[in-house]
Amino acid sequence: MPASGDVLIVGGGIVGLATAYQLASRFPDVRPIVLEKENRVSAHQSGRNSGVLHSGIYYKPGSLKAVNCRSGKAMMEAFCAEQGIAHEICGKVIVAVSESELPVLKTIFERGRQNGVRCEWFDGPRLREREPHAAGIQAIHVPEAGIVDFRAVCERLRSLIEQAGGTVALGARVTRIRRVPTEIIAELADGREFPAAQLVNCAGLHSDRVVAMSGARPASKIVPFRGEYYELLPEARGLCRHLIYPVPDPNFPFLGVHFTRMVDGSVECGPNAVLAFAREGYRKLDVNLRDLLESLTYSGFLRLCARHWRPGLGEIRRSFSKRAFVHALRRLIPDASAERLVPGRAGVRAQALAPDGSMIDDFQIIEGDRAIHVCNAPSPAATSSLRIGESIVDRIAPRLD
Questions:
Q1: At what angle do helices 14-26 and 381-400 cross, to 10 degrees?
Q2: CB-CB contact of 36 with 168 (8 Å)
Q3: Based on the structure, what is the number of domains in the chain?
Q4: How far is C-alpha 7 from the chain's CA centre?
Q5: The overall pTM is greater than 0.90
Q6: Which CATH number fits the domain that encloses residue 157?
Q7: Domain for residue 81, yes or no?
Q8: Order of strands across the sheet with 146-148?
Q9: Are residues 274 and 256 both part of a single domain?
């Protein structure tokens, strides 16, 4: 039975599980209880991402993303090596295909150096030595970027949490949070109640709703963006040796389509970024009227559309036209063709939007009364998860001693 000294963690994705794991490791007498509404862990973002171990090259020096990515990546590599989880430090290239992209590429290179990322500047011939099929006039080579099976990481974290005496409760959907003088109580859809000393909100796609349940006012709203992928046929996988990324458009808040070699040897191409009509809308026709109405009537989303409507239309076009998707991919690898691609999976990114239409770019962790809310944890949250979990435990540690 749950006890009032427990710590409740809402969400069985990689950040929630990493937090529970760090808590169980440091405080053997405190039981972490992970409440996951699905019938398995990592059902959403954590099990549907690109599987990349990010280096931290893109992020503003000193930001939570930059700091947590660098230390978190080292922790994740060590964890995977210790636990025998498939991973590989394969490296990646960020490729400029025109002169107009070189200033942004140079800015990324300088950021990488400031963040302590090992990176090299490649001219066209050196790029072709690394990736013979890649287009590009200049590139950044990031040898320490890698790939990993994050779903396997989540399953191992779950096992270690349970071995340490913690609980990972599946099918445990939180519908209400209330406070009494000495504890916080989560009520589930099936009528169960879990009292605890602390609550940690790692609910991802529903994190803003959990904030509201706890009695606080969320400063931003989650708007879901679906990312769709194609996959190279097995005979075409040689087109990409490692990871090939474009130079991101600084005026558009997504990285653009890229090529990602996975740990099983497959190669994914994508994603695009379109509004999902449901927070868990992995197919084009998945619609949740509540989710959709919230997005379409939110001032932050309307202002984002007004600011980025032109590239947004391009993303929508790529969603419905394989030809348009392939055209974008061929900027990086001219030999990519529709005949060499088959539809792949899709994921949904939980993006926090401020009311003024700006995307919350950094990790956002907010403390409340006996609660900590992870309100925004986009990429590289999976890479950074063990460090994020450690920092959350640092915050609640004084209340547990």
A1: 40
A2: yes
A3: 3
A4: 24
A5: yes
A6: 3.50.50.60
A7: no
A8: 52-53, 146-148, 87-88
A9: yes
What type of residue sits at position 107?
A: T
Boundaries of domain holding 155: 7-46+151-220+361-400
| Cα gap 62→363, rounded to integer Å | 12
For residue 57, give the 3-state DSSP assignment.
coil
Torsion of CA 52, 142, 343, 340, to 10 degrees: -150
Q: Are residues 31 and 139 in the same domain?
A: no
Question: Token pair of 69, please?
Answer: 């990515």
Is residue 345 domain-shared with residue 379, that is, in the same domain?
A: no
User: pLDDT by residue for the chain (401 residues), tens digit each?
Assistant: 555 579 999 999 999 999 999 999 999 999 999 999 999 999 999 999 989 999 999 999 999 999 999 999 999 999 999 999 999 999 999 999 999 999 999 999 999 999 999 999 999 999 999 999 999 999 999 999 999 999 999 999 999 999 999 999 999 999 999 999 889 999 999 999 999 999 999 999 999 999 999 999 898 999 999 999 999 999 999 999 999 999 998 776 677 899 999 999 999 999 999 999 999 999 999 999 999 999 999 999 999 999 988 888 999 999 999 999 999 999 999 999 999 999 999 999 999 999 999 999 899 999 988 999 999 999 999 999 999 999 999 999 988 76
Cβ-in-10-Å burial (0-12, 13-18, 19+) of 354 comes to middle
Whether residue 11 is found in the same domain as residue 132: no
> Does residue 287 sit in the same domain as residue 255?
yes
Domain-embedded: residue 78: no
Q: How many CB atoms lie within 10 A of CB 57?
A: 26
Identify whether the C-beta of residue 5 lies closer than 8 Å to the C-beta of residue 198: no
| Residue 287 and residue 277 in one domain | yes
φ/ψ (deg, to 5) at 241? -85, -35
Q: Are residues 123 and 234 in the same domain?
A: no
Q: From CA 399, how far away is CA 401, in angstroms rounded? A: 6
Q: How far apart are CA 138 and CA 119, in angstroms?
A: 13
3-state helix, strand, coil split of the chain in percent (to 5) is: 40, 25, 35
What whole-number distance in Å separates Cα of residue 166 and Cα of residue 23?
Answer: 9
Name 33's Cβ contacts closer than 8 Å, sequence gap at least 6: 2, 6, 7, 8, 9, 20, 166, 167, 169, 194, 196
CB 270 within 8 A of CB 257: yes
**CA dist., res. 361 & res. 367, Å (int):** 19
